Amino acid sequence: MKIWPISICVACVLSVAAPATASETIHKGDVVVVPLHGEVSPSLLAFLRRAVKTAESNEASGIVFDMNTYGGRLDTAAEIVNALNQIKIPTYTFINTNAGSAGALIAVATQHVYMAPVSAIGAAAPILPTGEDLPSTAREKTISYWSALVRGSAIKNGHNPDVAEAFMNKDKEVKIGDRVVHPKGAVLTLNAQEATEKINGKPLLAEGIVDSVGDLTKRAGLKDNIMRIEPTGFEQLAFWITALAPLLLLGGILGAYLEFKIPGATWPGVISAICFALFFLGHYLAGLAGWEVVALFVLGMVLVLIEILFFAHSTIIFGVLGVFLIIGSLLWTMIDRYPQQPFLPTGKMLAIPLLNMFIALVGALIVIALLARYLPRTSFYRRFALIDSNPPGPSLAGAPRHFATALALAPGMQGTAVTVLRPSGKARFADHVVDVVTEGEFISQKTPVTVIQTDGMRVVVKSAIQV
Questions:
Q1: CATH assignment of 25-228?
Q2: Average pLDDT over the chain, rounded to whole?
Q3: Between residues 423 and 144, the one the model is more confident about
């Protein structure tokens, strides 16, 4: 099993991604501006999550969301609303022209709303991707759920919950005191002047009309030092990688298994390295993981390797600790934790990581069982496993190469180590040199060895010298 390809590959891909945030140097007290432009999509969620965590971890004095969107996916909007409601520092939305549909729901999940002179917010009724209305039953269920969600979000952030609900529910009347601000029959949409109108001494929604983010920070009394975080092209990649997390884990586990079972092959280790590197890269770019989880993963692999090479027959402490660190780092990578949240994850935070891990482990067990049964019978396998190879030297330069499976190796058969076995290497049996592996011990060159196990995918040997 090779650890270095995996660790090197992980380090390389993360170093490529590092420049995406290296230029975003946020200092304590800075105001962070996060653009929310275009369609509300999973890539926007990945960017927003990264930006929010960057701002909070660097103790910014506030976050301003520069919004210009006509809406997008409702499920993504729900995740963005949830993320915004986790923020512990002041949040502001600058509606820079449009906050339509899902954008309106996101805006009311921030504590302060400001609008450009010519701008609008609202019209958040859920529709099908084709633009058509939902069927009546589906519409009632969707409106009922989202009405409760958006009302709760509005209350938490100090907004009128009736206004927030009326953005998406055409049957909602907005009445303040004796005045009917919005009658039933249509979803609510407000322009800047309507949203800032004061009724009973309080703005209907927005706190003011401003021309720019700089104007907003002055009106809100925020620090002048403004830092802007921009999205990168990696955000879309991050979405797909995190969505494919179970498959990447499956590929990494299977590659590591085959690397151990076929000592002479290198491609399983390369595949495993690529899968784990992509797994960590995607979650790093999505703002879910940092370098520390990669360090834990590599440390876990080092401990497992130490167990295999040095303590295979004496202790299991290093191996157990290594496996624990590997599994822990993989789970921690998938946890969506914000800086102000408790260190230990809650059950809700662990739900998706545990599900992904369960899918990967069950899938790996099934595939490994199938490989153990059927792979040794295939010609593809025989191209890599147990192929004769000649040791260095002119005397055997012209010797033919044969598959070691033709030797009918059996437990008890005697041979000699041609190379150092650490724990894999080559040994000679009769006139054939084959790939072998020990159970973890090192065996020096020219040492007599004995076959103790053959399972079709490898030949396991031990030293024939009695100590």
A1: 3.90.226.10
A2: 81
A3: 144
Which bin fits 123, alpha (ψ -120 to 50), beta or left (φ > 0)? left
The set of residues, in sequence order, having a beta carbon less than 8 Å from that of 19 and lying 6+ positions away, is none
Residue 262: closest CA among 385, 155, 162: 385
List Cβ neighbours of 413 (8 Å cut-off, separation of 6 or more): 429, 450, 451
Query: What is the Cα–Cα distance from 444 to 285, expressed in whole angstroms?
Result: 45
122 backbone φψ class: left, alpha, beta (φ>0; ψ -120 to 50): left
Question: In whole angstroms, what is the distance from residue 258 CA to residue 267 CA?
Answer: 9
Three-state secondary structure along 185-200? CCCCEEEHHHHCCEEC
Q: What is the per-residue pLDDT across 56-99, written as a single tens digit (0 to 9) for each?
A: 988 899 999 999 998 888 888 888 999 999 899 999 999 999 99
Percentage helix, strand, coil, to 5, in the chain? 45, 20, 35
- Interatomic CA distance for residues 90 and 84, integer angstroms: 10
State how far the Cα of 360 lies from the Cα of 72, in Å rounded to an integer.
31
pLDDT for res 129: 61
Which tens digits make up the pLDDT trace of 7-19? 445 455 444 444 4
Tokens 């520069």 correspond to 66
pLDDT tens string 272-293? 888 888 888 777 766 666 678 8
Establish how many alpha carbons lie within 13 A of residue 333's alpha carbon, considering only the half-sphere containing its beta carbon: 31
End-to-end CA distance of the chain: 28
H/E segment holding residue 326: helix 317-334
Q: In the prediction, which pLDDT does 235 show?
A: 65
Give the position of tokens 């040794």: 376
Radius of gyration in angstroms for the set of CA atoms belonging to the chain, rounded to a whole number: 30
Identify the pLDDT of residue 3.
Answer: 46
Q: Tell me, what DSSP letter sits at residue 134? A: P
User: DSSP state, 101?
Assistant: T
| Domain ranges in the chain with CATH number 3.90.226.10 | 25-228
Phi, psi of 270 (to 5 degrees): -65, -45
Q: Whole-angstrom Cα distance, residue 409 to residue 222?
A: 78
Is pLDDT above 80 for 299? yes
| N residues, the chain | 467
| pTM as predicted | 0.58
Q: How far apart are CA 89 and CA 81, in angstroms?
A: 15
CA separation for the pair 275, 263 (Å, rounded): 20
Identity of the amino acid at 245: A
Question: Domain 386-463, CATH 2.40.50.140 — does that match?
Answer: yes
* Confidence at 338, pLDDT banded by 50, 70, 90: low
Q: Residue 174: what pLDDT?
A: 94
